[in-house]
Automatic annotation (TrEMBL):
Protein name listed in UniProt: U3 small nucleolar RNA-associated protein 6 N-terminal domain-containing protein
Main location: nucleus
GO biological process per UniProt: maturation of SSU-rRNA from tricistronic rRNA transcript (SSU-rRNA, 5.8S rRNA, LSU-rRNA)
Gene Ontology MF terms in the entry: snoRNA binding
Naturally occurring in which organism (per UniProt): Sarocladium strictum
């Protein structure tokens, strides 16, 4: 334990100037300073122990955040300048703890996510980019990290970089459609944003880039490794299956933006993947139909339904999508809802007769019926849905 004691003492000595300033300014008393040192010493020994866990680092960091929040509160009450050197060192200490934690446990996804969330909170843009790149290198098959990277770029206005992240991530996360679906959702959000800005007559560059917040554009070809401040982005293995060929990638990046071609292209490329099923197509359908405010939404939805009819005719997921389509994202309190519900019930009766798996369709139908019954409904509509539920159960 001698080595652990020496390392713990070294890290504690680095915080001495900060503690002295806190005592001199009257932010913390001598007894409180003594307790802070003891607490830090306990945590340091815990995280420096060879058998430490990610939870130990998370607990240590959370305690430091609580201490920082208490310090900020007392500074405000005592009217002490917030821009002290000790204040800066407090944030630096938390960042250093995160660095040490992820270096000790590079495979801990929760710790990486906490680190990235804190960097976004304190608006450390450059460090966020570097940390995100390191996280993706350590866990290239983590869907949530690729989604976070793509969303961060899209939120900062750089949709080209967002598409680059999603496309590269799809090469690694090729076991299911999770990342593809989030990519489609991001594209729909972007279309909605562009449509709203056009209505407000606000000019907006489709490839706008915010130098302070954007993430770097990831290269699409296998020989482009992508580099962020000297840190290489993850690269698929040479023998890995080619998820997105050059033609599909070009289609995704060069399709007209406002006519819905890119979400359609995402869906079409996903259809070629081995994991694609009727349930996957239904997930795309649910996402696209939720954006009823988009003028191009009917075109996108019609394309998905056409593909499902072609690839999975009379499949229960295909039938369920046709049944639910008129009601998706429609408020039950609107006057249009009863009229659409009449169409839905007629379609449901028809699809029950022709589906290839009646039991699965029954389960899917009961799911959306129960969802409406849990909400506040007009009594007449509730009566109709309850009767429909009984008919489905008896069929």
């Amino acid at each position: 334990m001698a080595g652990v004691d020496d390392k713990a003492r070294l890290h504690l000595e680095r915080s001495v100037p900060q503690l002295r300033e806190w005592e001199e300014r009257g932010i913390f008393s001598k007894d409180e300073i003594r307790n802070i040192v003891k607490k830090r010493d306990d945590y340091e020994h815990r995280v420096l122990n060879p058998s430490n866990r990610p939870a130990d680092w998370a607990s240590y960091i959370q305690w430091e955040k609580s201490l920082e929040a208490l310090r900020a509160k007392r500074c405000k009450r005592l009217k002490i300048n917030q821009h002290l050197s000790s204040n800066i060192s407090s944030q630096g200490r938390i960042l250093q703890l995160y660095d040490r934690g992820v270096n000790r446990h590079p495979g801990s996804a929760p710790l990486w996510h906490e680190y990235l969330a804190y960097l976004a909170q304190v608006k450390a843009s450059k460090r966020f980019r570097n940390t995100m790149t390191n996280a993706l290198r350590m866990m290239p098959t983590n869907v949530d990290l690729w989604v976070l990277a793509g969303r961060k770029s899209a939120d900062s206005g750089d949709m080209a970089a967002a598409r680059g992240f999603f496309l590269r991530g799809c090469r690694f996360c090729n076991k299911d459609a999770g990342l593809w679906i989030e990519y489609a959702r991001c594209e729909m959000d972007w279309l909605l944003k562009m449509q709203q800005e056009q209505k407000n007559k606000k000019p907006h560059s489709m490839e706008k880039s915010d130098a302070q917040n954007e993430l770097s554009l990831v290269g699409l070809s296998d020989d482009e490794e992508g580099e962020e401040d000297g840190v290489l982005m993850p690269k698929p293995d040479a023998d890995a299956p080619q998820v997105v060929d050059s033609q599909s990638a070009q289609q995704l990046l060069s399709s007209p933006a406002m006519d819905g071609a890119i979400p359609i292209a995402v869906f079409d490329v996903c259809r070629k993947q081995p994991f694609f099923t009727s349930a996957t197509a239904a997930s795309f359908f649910d996402i696209f139909t939720a954006y009823r405010a988009l003028t191009v939404q009917p075109r996108i939805t019609a394309h998905v339904l056409s593909a499902m009819d072609e690839q999975y005719p009379n499949d229960p997921y295909t039938c369920d999508s046709h049944v639910r389509e008129p009601l998706i994202a429609l408020n039950p309190s609107t006057a249009e809802f009863p009229r659409k519900l009449k169409v839905v019930l007629a379609t449901l009766k028809q699809k029950m007769q022709c589906t290839t798996d009646k039991e699965v369709l029954k389960g899917l139908s009961l799911k959306w019926i129960d969802g409406y019954l849990e909400a506040e409904l007009d009594e007449a509509i509730r009566t109709v849905l309850e009767a429909t539920k009984k008919q489905v159960l008896a069929s």
